[in-house]
């Protein structure tokens, strides 16, 4: 009898531990909602959840939560309404483990004043000193892009804008521009003043951070997805084997005829993507593993 009672108590304790597990929402890309009674309310970063919390995730959206107790990040993309505990079990093998120190850093940044401030920089913002990661990551990113191009003696921006130049990649990623009006993929031609958003596909089994750099024929640059002041990249997460639409960050093609190149840049760790606004030149040091893909558009 005692062994049976002990086993029963252990099962009850295990069930209580699972249900008592807490999670903090780190980022929401797209649309996600939290069930409160019979209502669904918008889900936002900093929200505290437990295993029994029920959340609704729209198609091509993602919710990333932090498990501070176990030092893990979980990203959910399953469309529909699910309990958090079920989602955690489903993505357990793709959970991103981090050090206790880095978890503390992420939590501190998440709740710090101004952590949600975003901008589209017109120059490199030089915010790397505020980030937990190594400040050398920025130069590593630029070096890897230069190394991905065929040597030509030209500036990297010129070579990137040449469709005949091949571009190597380390990670299997891709993107599309989607018309805000029709919801259809924009092919190689775009209309002036057309509103679009970015849809990114991560075909790897790793969580990635992404951004999209636009360069026109005159060399003008635009960073399509905004960056945050601490370069945490929480809002730029694309979970493993998923497709995410950044509908909340639309942009408009300029008036006038032009030729535009868009470069998708994906990394396995947060980087300060604003450095892409500075001249892309060869750097010293190690290379950063990147996912790269270009699309070209003629606007008229």
Task: Give the helices and strands, then pairings.
Layout: H1 2-20, E1 22-29, E2 32-36, E3 39-42, E4 48-50, E5 54-57, E6 62-67, E7 72-76, E8 80-83, H2 84-91, E9 96-97, H3 100-110, E10 118-119, H4 137-147, H5 156-160, E11 173-179, E12 189-190, E13 195-202, E14 208-216, E15 221-223, E16 227-228, E17 237-238, E18 242-252, E19 258-267, E20 290-299
Parallel strand pairs: 12-20
Antiparallel strand pairs: 1-4, 1-6, 2-3, 2-5, 5-8, 6-7, 7-9, 10-16, 11-13, 13-18, 14-15, 14-17, 14-19, 19-20
Write a structural description:
With 300 residues, this protein is an alpha+beta fold. Helices cover 18% and strands 36% of the residues. The chain is built from five helices and 20 strands. The strands form five sheets. Strands 12, 14, 15, 17, 19 and 20 form a six-stranded mixed sheet that branches. It starts with a helix and ends with a strand.
Tell me the fraction of residues in β-strands, as a range. Answer: 35-45%
User: What's the average pLDDT?
Assistant: 87
Gap between N and C termini, in Å?
81 Å
The unreliable regions are 11-18
Helices and strands, in N-to-C order?
Answer: HEEEEEEEEHEHEHHEEEEEEEEEE
